[in-house]
Design goal:
heterodimer, A: about 270 residues, alpha/beta, 2 domains, 7-stranded mixed sheet, 3-stranded antiparallel sheet, 10 helices, about 45% helix, B: alpha/beta, Rossmann fold, 7-stranded parallel sheet, two-stranded antiparallel ribbon, 9 strands, about 30% helix
Chain lengths: ~270, ~200
Amino acid sequence: MQPADVELGLLLDAIYRAYHYDFRAYAEASLRRRIQTALGHFQCPTISRLQERILREPAVFGELLRFLTVQVSDMFRDSIYFRALRDIAVPYLTTYASLKVWVAGCATGEEAYSLAILLHEAGLLERTQIYATDINPESLRTARAGIYDASRCARFGESYLAAGGRASLADYYTVAYDAAVMDRRLKQAIVFSDHSLATDSVFSEVQLVSCRNVLIYFQKELQDRALGLLADSLSRRGFLGLGTKESLRFSPLAATFTECAPDARLYRKL
Amino acid sequence: MHRIDLIVIGGSAGALEVLLELMPQLPAELLAPIAIVLHQKPTQPSLVPQLLARACSRAVREPEDKEPLARGTVYVAPPNYHMLIERGGTIALSVDEPVHFSRPSIDVLFESAADALGRGVVGLVLSGSNPDGAEGLHRIAAAGGVALVQAPATAAHAVMPEAAARRVGALAHAQAHALAPREVAPFLSRLAGQEPLPSPLT
C-alpha cells in the first residue's frame, strides 16, 4: 500500500470521529481527486498534514467539506427525466390530497426548484411539501437563499423548455444585478435540511424521491444502504428517480421496483 | 512486449474524425478495453457511440456507473459526466466541476486510469484546441504507462497534442511517442507483441 493510500484511510477515519461525516464508503477515484485538489488549495504537502489541520482547526474542516461534496447542480438536467415525471408520475400524484417529495442530495438546490416548478405547473405545488436534503451546510444555505448566478439562467431556460416547461423559466425568478432570485412561492414549498444517506435514517413517508447523481459517489455497500433508505421512505406505488447512468439493475431492491420508462430512470415501488 | 490493460483516448475538435479512421484499423487481437473522452456539448443523447460502433466491430457504449471494464469493449464517456477508472477495474462516473471547462475531462479519465492500472495504461491525446489531457498523459507516463500523442502536424487542432507532448517531454525515461493516425494501430500491435493477451480484468 502506498503511503498516500494509508493516509487517505486515516483522514476519512479522522473526519468521521471528529465531525461525524462518513466518507469512508465513498467511491475512491473521485474522492482521491478531490483530496488532491484540496491539498493544493490548503497548501498541504501531504494528506497527513491536512489531517492535522482539520483536527486542530474546525474552520478548515468546514472549508474541506466544500471539496468533498458536489457544489453545483443544474436545473432540469436530463429532459427525458422531467418529461417522464410529467407524463407518468404526475397523473398518479394528482390522486393524493397531500403530497410529500424528497430530493435526496440536493447540493445547491437547483433540482429541488426544478421539481417545484414542475409541480406548480401540474397544479400540485400548493398541496406538496418538498424536503430537500444534503450533508453540506454551505450548499444548504445557498439552496435556501435560492439565489443563482444570472449568467446560468439562459441554459436553465433552455433545459426547462426541453423538459416540457409550459411557460418561461423567467416567470419563476427575478433578476437583480447579476443574481436570479427564485420566486417566494417555490421557496415556501421546500424545506432544506441536513440529512446523510450514509448515517441517518428515514424521516418521512413520501410519494416521490428524486436522488440523482448521488449514488455514483458511493461504493456498492453504501449504495445499497442509501437505496434501502429511499425505498423505505416511499409509500406503496411511490416513484423513485435516479440519474441517467444509475440503475437498480445490480441492486438487491431491483425486484421491488418496476421501471416506468426505459431511459428516464424513473422507477415505481411495487 | 508490454502488457496493455487499458487504452485511454482523449480529444476535442477534430478528434472524432481521427477515431473513425483509427478504430477499424485496430488489430482484432487487441482485446484491452478502450475508454474514450471526447469533448462534446452536454446534451443527451450523444451520437458518438453509434458512429464508432458502425466504424468497428467492437462493442461500443456509454458505461453505467460501476460497470466493470470488459475485454474488447469501447466505453465512451457520457455527455455531462466525468468518467473515471477505479482500482478494482470498474468505471465510475461523476458530476464534479468541469476541468478545463470540460465535463467529461480527459485529465480526469487519464489520471484515474494511471492511478488504478499504472504501467498497464496506454494513453493517446488527439486533436483539440485546449490543454485538457496534458496533465493526465503526464501521470500515465510517470506511472510507467505509454504516452502517445497524435503528431501535431497531422492534427486539425494542434494545441491539445502539443500541450500533452510538452508536458510529457519534461519527463525523463518516459515511453512517449508522437504518431500519425495511421501509425497508431501498427504501434499498438508491436507494443502488445501481436499476442492475444490475457487481460487481468474480467
